Amino acid sequence: MKQPVKQHLIDPEICIRCHSCEAACPIGAIEHNGNNVVVKAEACNFCMACIPVCPTGSIDEWRVVETPYTLDEQYGWTELPAQATLASGADEDAPEALDSAVAELLADAHKGAGGKAKAPASASKPSVNLYPMGKPAQATVQGNYRLTGENADADVRLIILDFGAQRFPVLEGQSLGIIPPGLDKDGKPHLPRLYSVSSPRDGERPNYNNVSLTVKRAPGGVCSNYVCDLKKGDKVDVTGPFGATFLLPEDPKARLLMICTGTGSAPFRAFTMRRQREGLRGGGDMTLFFGARTPDSLPYFGPLNKVPSRILRKHMVFSRIPGVPKEYVQDRMLVEAEDVAEMLADPNLHIYICGLRGMEEGVEKAFVNIAESTGTPWATLRDAMRGEGRYHVETY
Ligand code: A2P
Prior knowledge:
Elements: E1 5-9, H1 20-24, E2 30-32, E3 37-39, E4 61-65, H2 71-76, H3 100-109, E5 137-146, E6 156-162, E7 175-179, E8 193-196, E9 210-216, H4 222-228, E10 235-242, E11 255-261, H5 266-278, E12 286-292, H6 301-306, E13 312-318, H7 329-335, H8 337-344, E14 349-355, H9 359-372, H10 378-387, E15 391-395
Parallel strand pairs: 11-12, 11-14, 12-13, 14-15
Antiparallel strand pairs: 1-4, 2-3, 5-6, 5-10, 6-9, 7-8, 7-10
Adenosine-2'-5'-diphosphate binds at residues 154, 261-262, 291-293, 319-320, 328-330, 356, 358-359, 362.
């Protein structure tokens, strides 16, 4: 009988094909075709360099196998196979049947970056990867509008893409990929860059087959400059849709606590628009902590201020207003600790965090502090919420 081994895999349903893992892998053990991103079993040395860079947690998948899945098998997957029962009779649901070496492997296989992301139980079923890299959809630019003030140092834009007769269904919280034209420094076609969709499922304009993106121009950024310079009528190659966990609960009682910086606001704009268009039916309120440098550089500052506070409680915080102390989202969470603690105690609460990776640590510390007053340690609460599909993080 073959000795079982641990195999590192990527969940194709959750992966948003941002290729960060591929760039982070120091030994070239991760590769892709037009469909999936996969791990070479014989090359992966479990160095874990790819784990923290993945914005979705789809990289954090492990199986104990007697024969590793081949690249061809992985390329063909639309979903990850369950842990198979091993010839020894062992599977993860029957730990008593395991010999200790396999038990250790399986326990180890579940030690990852912090648990598997799960969609809200009531979320709609998303479509994923309908247009892979090898067969992108072609969208037409319908609009390109600057969202930040003329004096703001950041150029953030609302880009509207129309899909015409092509079916491109997206749910709020999903992302799509844009393939910049031309070749990279190695003479290969550029990989798609990922952007969160900032419009609701029925379109930026209701019942139009269009989506919007919120894109910040990055100095020297190949794709962000391409996107920010697009003109009405331009044609764009689009992959996706991607993402199967960072989704809006359909349950109208679900309360949303959304925490973001900068363009991390994109999915929350989609969530808010969806709920506004649907009408508030079940009492699920929404609270937003949004951090930016100045009001001028906060995307959607004007429109957000117009959303009534009975629909959305807004905490917009600024870090670079001259003469005013710097404030981050986590600082404001502590100021609003009583309200946040009340939300944490509610089993209808869903938490979403989106934006700069750097904010995660500060937000985590704020939650630790606030959860103390609820009597449940934050780590326990967070892991339970994640397991119930009520805790979602997408940072980059
Ligand atoms: P800062 O003034 O320190 O850069 P950006 O404009 O770069 O997209 O950032 C959006 C906001 O996030 C800015 O106000 C920025 O503040 C803030 N920010 C930067 N680092 C952190 C962090 N570690 N935690 C929370 N907010 C942060």
